[in-house]
Design brief:
The structure is a homotetramer. The first copy, chain A, is an alpha/beta fold. Helix content of chain A is 32%, strand content 20%.
Chain lengths: 330, 330, 330, 330
Amino acid sequence: MILYIIRKNADYSTLKEKLEASSATYKFIDLYGKRLVVGWPDSCLVGLQDPSIELIVNSRSPYVLSENNWKKEPTIVNVSGIEIGGEKVVVAAGPCSVESEEQIESVAKAIKSAGAKLLRGGTYKPRTSPYSFQGLGSEGIRILKKVGDSLGLPIVTEILDVRSLDVFKDVDMIQVGARNSQNFPLLRELGKFGKPVLLKRGMSTTVEEWMASADYILYEGNGNVVLCERGVRTFEKATRFTLDIGGMAAVKLLSHLPVCADPSHSAGKRELVQSLALAAIAAGADMLLIEVHPNPEKALSDSEQQLTPNSFSLLMERIKALANVLGRKV
Amino acid sequence: MILYIIRKNADYSTLKEKLEASSATYKFIDLYGKRLVVGWPDSCLVGLQDPSIELIVNSRSPYVLSENNWKKEPTIVNVSGIEIGGEKVVVAAGPCSVESEEQIESVAKAIKSAGAKLLRGGTYKPRTSPYSFQGLGSEGIRILKKVGDSLGLPIVTEILDVRSLDVFKDVDMIQVGARNSQNFPLLRELGKFGKPVLLKRGMSTTVEEWMASADYILYEGNGNVVLCERGVRTFEKATRFTLDIGGMAAVKLLSHLPVCADPSHSAGKRELVQSLALAAIAAGADMLLIEVHPNPEKALSDSEQQLTPNSFSLLMERIKALANVLGRKV
Amino acid sequence: MILYIIRKNADYSTLKEKLEASSATYKFIDLYGKRLVVGWPDSCLVGLQDPSIELIVNSRSPYVLSENNWKKEPTIVNVSGIEIGGEKVVVAAGPCSVESEEQIESVAKAIKSAGAKLLRGGTYKPRTSPYSFQGLGSEGIRILKKVGDSLGLPIVTEILDVRSLDVFKDVDMIQVGARNSQNFPLLRELGKFGKPVLLKRGMSTTVEEWMASADYILYEGNGNVVLCERGVRTFEKATRFTLDIGGMAAVKLLSHLPVCADPSHSAGKRELVQSLALAAIAAGADMLLIEVHPNPEKALSDSEQQLTPNSFSLLMERIKALANVLGRKV
Amino acid sequence: MILYIIRKNADYSTLKEKLEASSATYKFIDLYGKRLVVGWPDSCLVGLQDPSIELIVNSRSPYVLSENNWKKEPTIVNVSGIEIGGEKVVVAAGPCSVESEEQIESVAKAIKSAGAKLLRGGTYKPRTSPYSFQGLGSEGIRILKKVGDSLGLPIVTEILDVRSLDVFKDVDMIQVGARNSQNFPLLRELGKFGKPVLLKRGMSTTVEEWMASADYILYEGNGNVVLCERGVRTFEKATRFTLDIGGMAAVKLLSHLPVCADPSHSAGKRELVQSLALAAIAAGADMLLIEVHPNPEKALSDSEQQLTPNSFSLLMERIKALANVLGRKV
């Protein structure tokens, strides 16, 4: 497809006419303060020129909006005041599942004092089996919101069902899980919804497909997307998933969007979380998603991979030291 | 979890009281003419007995309804008169995407005369890129239905969005694609909707997870599920996906549900479709999903893997001969 | 690289001079009754012409001798009288490991009467752990040879160590296992040794790399290579390895060499062996390698995947029926 | 199997008799200043006790010598004076292939002044295709040795053929490549040879198998093994291989042996080498293997992934800073 960037304040009415006259499909999109047009197939747009066009980008990939050919400067995603993609490395922490208000209060205070900037917790849980704990749903979001507000921590939680979007109006950052990474109707709706999206890579999604999924959101005018690597599925069973640090670094080279890593899900056991968290920071992650539970052994899901508040606090110290030497802060 | 099969016509009111008195989660389900109860966690149900219980099955897998521990006889799924899972091998054929009424008419006649029993065609297309052809949507279903009705071919097409279920009331068998294989809200709704479901395995879904996805549908009372192997994602690029014949055979050993194979998507090129189709039949597939296009080179999607009507007809001859020697028919 | 086929009985002395004058690396090879030259890099050979040249093949793959661009007719590999790659499907059967003369006698009689044409058995075993049974070594070969001779069954066994080639002079077909599929010094020596080679695909070797490994053998003048698919390593654990039927079919399209499948190692459990064996035949396998043990439960290695003589006999009946309908025999 | 550690200076003659009297296979091994016995199968050794035994370790894994159950303190491998596994992070650098003395001199000076402690270079090259550059062989080793000696840099190079061991007597550390990671005869010989071994993980070798391969070397009495993660094969093609940082960290938890990472081969492109190198250090790597070429564009192999001396020098600065904050040095 072809991307046209419209010159600031230019009159693009003749460009519109030319597009209309072509047999191309096209759409005007406002992103990052720029007016853009994406059109395809290329064959219908060959040679199209107009004085209103500042730059033409021709992409042979399945994506164009999320790549950095047309937008050199890194995108900073603002999550209710917390900036992701800038100088600071942002850590979102919290339990795998929201279980009770007491649990969230306890963990939220701990992670805040350790330096986390966002509160995460699963409310609608994507469970392999219908016979596993499915999460507290909207009640979980109410709890997260209440505790988050009281401590000044914006909240992150995962959406499973496109029909439940209303319930997410109080959520600061909406997570799309690995199993929904190519749920295209959901991605389009999140594009229209406008809230910051934490887009996890599917467990066997390529870097190319992952960026194309981001394009579904950007295409609807929502540029607030953070790409989250959470481990791909391989033959190796010593870890739950194989954290693809190289794939994350490859995305950093190709895209202007910030990247996040989820060491908890890929590790699958808490002894490995620190190594993977530090590795991700060293490789350029802008954000980390770390599972912390006040009492991991009693957790209703993923008990083996959640850190205690104490070990999280120690990890944060190492993250800060590492970020510092890389010219970043926490 | 634990599965109880209720004795035919038994009074199970005291069982209900016992379940209520326990702190287990439980549900009564009617499946295949039997009344069942599934309950969990096991710890809350230890020692529960009742005269109304015919059989107790204790499963340590993430599934129970789709396994054959409690239902030895294979399930036959009836798709508007076409039986899948019985003696006959059923072939569903048609284009990757519905493009026009002429296209569907032409291909439907050809596949019918070659012996296909179901007409398939993509109407809502799950495309990696937002800039690719997305399908004709409800208009595509209208075309499929019209042509299918005129030729007596029940139709199969894929659903992408849980909100579009209404549009699928005229569809005989609803396909869940690889990318939605763990879209749990969609699976639950299809369980309630009741129509036969063709549940594709995700591209990195394990056999265990695939069966657990089937359980989501059965759990809502819909036992009409066919499990479709369509290739898993591996390092090998000589084929588009690696058709996991062994995984399909493993499911046959574990489950009472019929199995289908999709040689077209896994092959990725038409020269390989025949080998994979025959291999699947030889390994016990009850159904095949084969892409046929009147003019593959001009197809709007997946042009390289679609067969011409002629080569499909030749393939059907070989399929018939093979099925015959295996004690089956087409 | 570039392949030149020399015209029959042509004088190619000037061609030789031209090659010498170029700065290319080149080698004359006699294969399948033809005299060939392979030379590279291409840049040094551009425009080279000579009346002695019958055909020039330019390959951009990492292989050329094993592909069918220059040799359209399928290669038939003759293993002491048994032809692989012709009309007949050849079955090699026997235990995972040679354990004793009694064991081999018992199993050899059984597989012969069931229709197997080659006797297989592991003598030098590639074991993950140094603490597992490593095989009987040369004594195992002596047993195989003795029993094979007495029953008229040529023998197949695996080589592990390039230094033990001498011991293999009595072996009719030398197997290269998955772990040695890219053991290049071993492949070269087998090329010089001249005996038929059963070249297994590595557990994560691509089709392209597999054919390049075959080229190492052919390059030394040994064209008697059968390519054996034995399952690739994936995330799926319901089978031991994922038998890549599509990869095997892809090789059939690209290469003139016969192909074999090993359903036993990929299945990992005997209940799945039949499905995979039949699938491989249906997809065009010229040969099968099947593990049979007189008493599988007591086997010193891989006890779960070996068939009893009885179930092997039943499998052979189905293989024969299937081969027949595909226009082949056993 | 069972591991017995003999008490220092104890008389173990009765233990020997007991072992002899059992029907177990066993072997006495001297490792890290301790006298050990490994015996199996367990069933033959149940209840065996002797005053000479200091500790009994029972392993259900396919390895025991490489795990840290019996040896808590990390092993330090001494490569001609350079210690791997101690406080310092050791960097080995040099070209993919040794091409000429000038090339090696130029690169060796550069890497030394940047802080590398070992000089690496391929001399016997494992190439997918027989038509690719195969390395300079023994002449390459002569060059490496000469330059290494003149600059005080111990040398690391890969062995392909067990028959060429003699040629490696001047090599300080012998690399076993991914394709030979389960070449058991080679591993055994290296165990007897005694020189430090850099054991790469196979491209689809599990952590468990990798440690079992190390056990083959330790079993012959050579404890000088460094385990090198070089990327596993997955579906992702944005990098050449997927560097499994989690697998490397898992090995660190299980084994007393030092670990190394090879960011160059896994990255496949030089823009990604830095991210992967830093990630490996952050996750605990004791050593790095980095490809540096005086003129990468003209390299005879893997030109895209080799760093220039300048960019290597910049990378070393970042490695030093990172190591420092992690309490290590370079």
